[in-house]
Amino acid sequence: MGGQCSWFDFATAIAGFVQQKYGSAARIEPCSSAQYPRPAQRPAYSVLDVAATIEQLGPLPDWRHNLQQVLETLEPHAAAGSAAPR
Fold first, then answer.
1. Less CB within 10 Å around the terminal CB: N or C of the chain?
2. Count of beta carbons in the 10 Å neighbourhood of residue 54
3. Residue 11 neighbours by CB under 8 Å, 6+ apart
């Protein structure tokens, strides 16, 4: 399970949550690494290896499920303009 995603996939999922909740969201457009300069060079494909985590905790839930939980936790604080819970 767990899954993998690009920054574009991650941003699109967040925009989807906002769209579903509020009816509109920012338009997310993909760009290449060359179009988004970073201070350090990054590998073209750099997926985080979670094998040790899976070995200790078992299969990880899909990232979309956990993202949904985080966004639902943060939503009341964002709407109120307050800091997120710690």
1. C
2. 13
3. 28
Q: Where are the domains of the chain?
A: 7-35+46-80
The pTM of the full predicted model, rounded to 2 decimals, is 0.73
DSSP state at residue 60: P
Residues of the chain with pLDDT under 70: 1, 79-86
Q: Which single residue is written with the structure tokens 């970073």?
A: 38
Q: What is the pLDDT of residue 57?
A: 93
- By the 10 Å C-beta count (0-12 exposed, 13-18 middle, 19+ buried), 79 is classed as exposed
Helix count and strand count (H, E) for the chain:
3, 0
